[in-house]
From TrEMBL:
Cross-referenced CDD domains: CE4_DAC2 (cd10936)
Superkingdom: Bacteria
Name this protein carries in UniProt: Divergent polysaccharide deacetylase family protein
InterPro entries found in the cross-reference section: Divergent_DAC, Glyco_hydro/deAcase_b/a-brl
Gene3D superfamilies: Glycoside hydrolase/deacetylase (3.20.20.370)
Keywords, ordered alphabetically: Signal
Signal sequence range: 1-20
Gene Ontology biological-process entries: carbohydrate metabolic process
Lineage, uppermost ranks: Bacteria, Pseudomonadati, Pseudomonadota, Gammaproteobacteria, Chromatiales
A Pfam family hit: Polysacc_deac_2
Amino acid sequence: MRITFFGLVLAGLLSAKALADKPRIAIIIDDIGYQKADLKMVALPYPLTLSVLPHTPYGPKSAQLAFSQQKDVMLHMPMEANNRKSLGPGALTRNMSRQQVRDALQQALADIPYAIGVNNHMGSLYTELDQPMAWTMEYLRQRQLFFVDSLTTPQSKARLYARQYGVASLSRHVFLDNDLSEAALQRQFQQLLHIAKRHQVAIAIGHPYPQTYEFLKKNLPMLNKHGIELVRISELLPQEHDVVAAGFTAPAISAPQ
């Protein structure tokens, strides 16, 4: 009987280790909020992370639905891009003062109070700039929010200033759906799985396109076969980071210039 007992204990420990060693991926769905159809992506029965644009017709409803399903909600904060594309309302731009940056972030988070972190919508120009990124990270630290760098530019300063201000940060590894063909989606998905198997974690960003929705609906159930676990983005953060929704922290008071 003792042998059986210790055998069971050993088997349990080995199972726990195997579970702990299982590669993990997080998939962030950006650009949630403009279309009613975005709610279909939110409702998929998998722990996707939903990054919601502020000041959009279906943003608050999408965020509330995701929160009710115990999914992670992020603020998809518009930031100035090099290509001068339209950013939508409430964007952060290079010419803003420190107070304007803080006000824009505060108003966006008031619109999406379930957000526990932020990632950049576009931002190929803004994330390269020292002072604006320093102000941004200063504010996120005061609100206890993390940052995921979408890496729309290889010259991003996000990680540098996140570290300087003590903001928990992560970075995107793969864009799933820049090309919406089935072959391209599959290629990017396989790259995501390869990175996860090699490094234990990987982060992808996708969008609420009908093709992406159908692809994820078909392929996410097969992750177990690959020995990979889909997790919420918060599960990839450092253990010391306390996850807090923006609506449960007081807006940061402006500090002296």
